[in-house]
Amino acid sequence: MLGDAGRGQVNVPLLQVDGLVKHYRGGGMFARTDAIVKAVDGVTFSIGRGETLGLVGESGSGKTTVGRAVLRLELPTAGTVRFEGTDLASLQPAELRALRRRMQIVFQDPFASLNPRRTVGASVAEGIEIHRLAPKRDIPRLVGELLEEVGLDASYARKYPHEFSGGQRQRIGIARALAVEPSFIVCDEPVSALDVSVQAQVLNLLLDLRDARELSYLFIAHDVALVRQIAHRIAVMYLGTIVEIGPARTVIDAPKHPYTQALVSAVPEPDPTKSTSRIILAGDPPSPANPPPGCPFVTRCFHPMKDARCTAERPRLRLVEAREVACHYAESA
User: 252: which of 12, 116, 233, 259 lies 20 to 30 Å off by Cα?
Assistant: First the structure.
């Protein structure tokens, strides 16, 4: 069984993101080269020590771009990212490199993220060597201990990535992230490429590591039911913006934004005696190069009170029943 996501939550912010914006110029080979693609358009959130924030939304909503911008793998167009109170944009390259060991990432594809020409031991040891965290003679022992911590045998250090299953490769990726003793990890859809039977094992591992090491996660996924198992809070993204954010159970059990309601309605009901009503959204999401001037969800919204205000005025996040919602008529959801 998965652990209780509510354990160990701390309110002191480890990461503070304010007004994060990431725009790209050009929309593709056959698009206007001067078009501005608004991949992330004003995202604000915080993550406390030992806390997991789940970031959910459909493909193209900007989830992965947020994760990469937070780590400065992508340079933000605007906004600030503060880690332990330090504005990452103010750091010199050497200072940022030193801080990077505190902020790591686990990628979606465990095979593509590992160098096929390097042994598992060499990949896990790379961060330790770069940051000079241990004498060279101690590194093999530390690598073995890391592999055992993620549920693998220490002898696997001599093998290559192609010799492992997808779940084992993801455990190796987690061990590599842990090698530099981080306090914050971006988990970019870490189980979406794995078999369903393996997903729960990896989630349990992440929960155990969070509790044992007091880690904080930004857990990116498109599966709302999966995120509920690990996240303290959930932020729902649509077209580069957060439309609802709050405690995981509050957001999922009583969603207030129409888009969140549609996502939750798609979660299968395991009890065959209970009837469910699936919300089918009409049409496709607008292009991030040409978003609606008002509410980003207005073209697919099914709220009975939708009116001209939704078309003209962009709603801002505001407190509605223990969570923040970007909807003019959230109270009547």
Answer: 12
